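Next up, sample data.

:::
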Amino acid sequence: LDSMLKNMKVAQRIELFLYQAGMSMKVATFVLLIAASAMAAYLISFAIFGKVLNAVFFLLVGGFLPVFFVGQKKNARMKAFAEEFPDTLDLLVSALRAGISFSGALQIVADESPEPVRSEFAIVVEEQALGLDLREALGNMATGDDSLDHKFFVTGVVLQRDTGGNLTEVLENTGKLIRDRFRI
């Protein structure tokens, strides 16, 4: 089932959905979980009420429960990331002001930040260590997240790397922008 789903566009969206929720479940496992949940709800409902129409309603509800659960986990993870991200930018700025390279500052964030920020930046550091360009590694990080703040950060860093300028100032301004958006 997993190999059959691998090339389907909907499976790629489900994989991204599971990744954003911080779950390491395979797409096929998630699809089977949805099917099992729907079937169990159908059978239990049919046994209790004895009517097909009620059972079909509970089949739909039962199939939606795993999606709802993963959606809740995704929202909680994104909210936690958004709350920690300004502090992460402050840590990056402090490391850069201390004379540490940007790659070294990313490593510090990957080591010392709370989850889920730690895991996102650890992936960037690991991808860089494996030879991926910083632009691509940061782009991958922004692709796996719906956060507009995350995209601002990646765009700011990439533009600064291309055009030059003061990266600490860019990161400080991005952190202030994010905090101002929270206040509003």
Observations:
- The CA atoms of residues 86 and 159 lie 19 Å apart.
- The two ends are 46 Å apart (CA to CA).
- The chain has a mean pLDDT of 88.
